[in-house]
Specification:
The structure holds two protein chains of two kinds. By secondary structure, chain A is mostly helical. Chain A contains eleven helices and two strands. Chain A has one domain: ABC transporter involved in vitamin B12 uptake, BtuC, CATH 1.10.3470. Helix content of chain A is 73%, strand content 2%. Chain B is an alpha/beta fold. Chain B has one domain: Rossmann fold (3-Layer(aba) Sandwich), CATH 3.40.50. In chain B, helix 7 runs parallel beside helix 8. Classes of the chains: A mainly alpha, B alpha/beta.
Chain lengths: 287, 248
C-alpha cells in the first residue's frame, strides 16, 4: 500500500508540472493563437536561471522562485516582440514551426555550454526532510511543490476568470480589434500574456530543479507529455488544463503501480481516445 | 460627390465640426473599399450614412475608428488627425463604436460585457443612469453569458457599454438591424435622448424610416464615395432621389 501512495505522490508532483506548463500553454494559445513549442525550452531556462542565481550571484531558491520567472518572462516578451508578432494571424503551423525552431536553438546553446548531464540544485534547507503521515512518508519538498503549484494555478485561473484584466484577456481572445477600439492596448496585452505564460513555465522549471536536476533537455523530455495533456484537456481552456494536468499525473502514477509497462504511454493512449471521441478536448469548446 | 463645404445646413443648435472627413480611402488587403469619402459631423447632431449593402458605410465607421489598417486621406476629430492613429488611441479621444454585429463577448457575462470598455473621459453615464435608459439590462445583469440575451437586449448592452466610457461621439452601425418594431422604437427614443444630452452621433442605417426620426442630416454612400447629402428638413424634396439611391 505504501508503494501505491508513493506512486500517487509522484503522480501529483508530475501533475503539478503538467498543470503549470499546460496552463501557460493554454493562456498563450488563447491570446496569441500560437502553439508554443518553445515552452519546454523556457521551462529549462527557468531551472538554469535558478542555478545561475545560486552559483553566480549567491541568491538562493526563494529569490529564484521570484526572479527566474520574471527574467525568463522578460526574455519571452522579447521573443514575442521580435519574432512571434510577425506571424500573428497566420496559420497555426507557422507559430508551431517558429517556436519549435526557437526551442531547438535555445536547447542547442545550453547543450553546447553545459553538456547533457544534469547539474545539481539542492533542496532549500527549510524544505528538506520528510513527514511520516502514518500511511506513507512524505518528503516535504515534494509536498511543497504540489501545494505551491496548486496555489499558483488557482491564482492564475482567478486572474483570468474573475478579474477585470482577465475580462480584457478573454474578450481580446474573441475579438481583439473591437477590444482595441474600446481603448485597450491589445498588442501590449498580448506581449504581457506571453510573458505570463512563459513566467509560469519558468516557475515550473525552478520548482523542478531540486527534484530533477538542471539539464538542457529537461524541457524537451517533458513538453511532449504536456502537449498530450493540453490536447486531452482542451486547448485554450484554463481550468481544463489545470485539472487535466493534475489528473493525468495521478493516472500516470496509478499506472506505474498497477501496470508499470504502460506508464510512459498511458497519457498518449488517452490522447488518442479523446481525439477520437471528443476532438476539442474534455473541457474545450467547439469553435 | 457632395462638397462638404456646401453641404446642407444642420439645425441651428448644432455647433462647429467635430469630425471632418476628407478624401478618406481604405483597403481590406488588396480590395479598395473606400474611394474618397467626404463629409462632416457637427457637435451635438445626429448624422446618418445611408446606402445600399456593400456601399462602404460600415467601412467608413471602421476607418474613422482605426479598425482598418490601410487607409489614407484625412479624418480630423476635435482637432486630432486620426488617420495615423491606432484604434485604442482614437477611443481615448472620446470616440466610441457600436459595431454592426454588436460585438457581445460570449466568454463574458452580461455585467463583464457592460463594464468591459474602460472609462476614457469623465462625464460618462453611471450604471444607474444606464439602467434608467435600459431597464431590461438591470434585470438580465446576472445572466451567465452576454450572447444568451435576446437580439434587442444585446443591442442595448452594446450601446450601454459605450455610454459608460465618457465618449461623446458615438458611431452606431445599424443598431436596428433584425430587431422587432417595439425595440426599434426604444432605440430611437434612446438616440433622441442621447442627442438631447449633448452626444454627437454618426449612424449607419439601412432602415431609412427609422433614420428619418432621429437624424439631422443624411449622407448617401455609394461605391465607397459620398454622392449626396441633405438635411432632414429637405427630406421630402429629396424623396425621389433617395428612392433611386437606396433602390426602395
Amino acid at each position: 500500500m505504501q508503494a501505491l501512495y508513493a506512486q500517487l505522490l509522484v503522480g501529483l508532483i508530475n501533475g503539478s508540472f503538467y498543470a503549470l506548463l499546460s496552463l501557460g500553454l493554454a493562456v498563450i494559445f488563447g491570446m496569441l493563437n500560437i502553439i508554443n513549442f518553445a515552452h519546454g525550452a523556457l521551462y529549462m531556462m527557468g531551472a538554469f536561471c535558478a542555478y545561475f542565481l545560486l552559483n553566480i550571484f549567491g541568491l538562493n531558491y526563494w529569490y529564484a522562485l521570484v526572479l527566474a520567472p520574471i527574467a525568463v518572462g522578460i526574455f519571452g516578451m522579447l521573443l514575442e516582440r521580435t519574432l512571434l508578432k510577425w506571424i500573428a494571424g497566420l496559420d497555426h503551423l507557422y507559430g508551431l514551426l517558429l517556436t519549435f525552431g526557437i526551442a531547438l536553438i535555445i536547447q542547442g546553446v545550453f547543450q553546447n555550454y553545459f553538456g547533457s548531464s544534469g547539474l545539481p540544485y539542492a533542496i532549500p534547507p527549510q524544505l528538506q526532510g520528510g513527514m511520516n503521515l502514518g500511511f506513507m512518508f512524505l518528503p516535504i519538498y515534494r509536498g511543497w511543490v504540489v501545494v505551491f503549484s496548486l496555489v499558483v494555478c488557482i491564482a492564475t485561473w482567478y486572474l483570468i476568470e474573475r478579474t477585470r484584466l482577465g475580462a480584457y484577456l478573454r474578450a481580446a481572445t474573441e475579438n481583439p480589434n473591437l477590444v482595441r477600439a474600446f481603448g485597450i492596448n491589445v498588442p501590449r496585452m498580448i506581449t504581457l500574456t506571453y510573458g505570463l505564460g512563459i513566467g509560469l513555465a519558468a516557475l515550473a522549471g525552478v520548482l523542478s530543479a531540486p527534484i530533477n536536476q538542471v539539464r538542457p533537455l529537461m524541457g524537451a523530455d517533458l513538453i511532449i507529455v504536456v502537449f498530450a495533456v493540453v490536447v486531452i484537456g482542451g486547448m485554450g481552456s484554463i481550468m481544463g488544463s489545470v485539472i487535466t494536468g493534475f489528473a493525468l499525473g495521478v493516472v500516470e502514477g496509478l499506472t506505474k503501480y498497477f501496470y508499470p509497462e504502460a506508464s510512459n504511454t498511458v497519457v498518449f493512449v488517452l490522447m488518442v481516445l479523446v481525439l477520437l471521441v471528443k476532438p476539442t478536448g474534455l473541457t474545450g469548446r467547439a469553435t | 460627390m457632395v462638397d462638404v463645404k456646401t453641404a446642407p445646413d444642420a439645425p441651428a443648435k448644432a455647433g462647429a465640426s467635430l469630425l471632418e472627413i476628407r478624401d478618406l480611402q481604405a483597403w481590406y488587403g488588396e480590395s479598395h473599399v473606400l474611394h474618397g469619402i467626404n463629409f462632416d459631423v457637427r457637435t451635438g447632431e445626429v448624422v446618418t450614412l445611408l446606402g445600399r449593402n456593400g456601399a462602404g458605410k460600415t467601412s467608413t465607421l471602421k476607418s474613422i475608428m482605426g479598425m482598418i489598417a490601410k487607409r489614407t486621406g484625412s479624418a480630423r476629430f476635435d482637432g486630432h488627425e486620426l488617420i495615423k492613429m491606432h484604434s485604442d488611441k482614437i477611443a481615448r479621444l472620446g470616440v466610441a463604436i457600436c459595431p454592426e454585429e454588436r460585438g457581445i463577448f460570449a466568454s463574458l457575462d452580461v455585467r463583464e460585457n457592460l463594464m468591459l470598455p474602460p472609462i476614457v473621459r469623465s462625464g460618462g453615464l453611471s450604471t444607474e443612469q444606464i439602467f434608467e435608459l435600459f431597464p431590461n439590462l438591470k434585470e438580465r445583469l446576472s445572466s451567465s453569458q452576454g450572447t444568451k440575451l435576446s437580439g434587442g437586449e444585446q443591442q442595448m448592452l452594446a450601446i450601454a457599454r459605450i455610454l459608460r466610457t465618457g465618449a461623446r461621439f458615438l458611431m452606431l452601425d445599424e443598431p436596428t438591424e433584425g430587431l422587432a418594431p417595439v425595440i426599434i422604437q426604444q432605440i430611437g427614443r434612446t438616440i433622441q435622448r442621447l442627442k438631447s444630452e449633448g452626444f454627437t452621433i454618426l449612424l449607419v442605417e439601412q432602415n431609412f424610416r427609422f433614420a428619418s426620426t432621429v437624424a439631422d442630416r443624411f449622407f448617401i454612400v455609394e461605391h465607397g464615395k459620398v454622392i449626396d447629402g441633405f438635411a432632414n428638413s429637405e427630406l421630402q424634396a429629396n424623396m425621389d432621389k433617395l428612392h433611386t439611391y437606396l433602390g426602395v
